[in-house]
Amino acid sequence: LQPANPRSLRIGLAGAPNAGKSSLMNAILDCPVSAVSPKVNTTRDGVRGVKTIEEAQLVFLDAPGIVPSHQQLYNRELVAKAWKGYQECDVCLLVVDVVKRSAQEQGLKGRRGLMSSSKKQ
What we know:
With 121 residues, the chain is α/β, with parallel strands linked by helices. It has helices spanning 21-29, 73-87; strands spanning 7-14, 47-53, 56-62, 91-94. The protein is globular and about 50 Å long.
């Protein structure tokens, strides 16, 4: 049965490998949808999970981690899959494991569309 006023929001979870994107999505959905492992690049393809709240559906995308080095073909392919998935999203959340390392150390600082600042004049 379709709600009278359905709404949806596509949310991409962006960040470095092992930043906690899969764990965050599983916690939000209260269900183990995405694999979690200490191994880097456990998520190799985009995994989607849906959270329905009344008439709204939140569609989460857990994509492969963004790595700062694109020197290896395998890494380039994973990063390309991630960016393609993020382009389909309405909004992206940057997930940073601040215990492990900062966003700058993870090579994410200044990535257009992920981290930006705005000044109100």
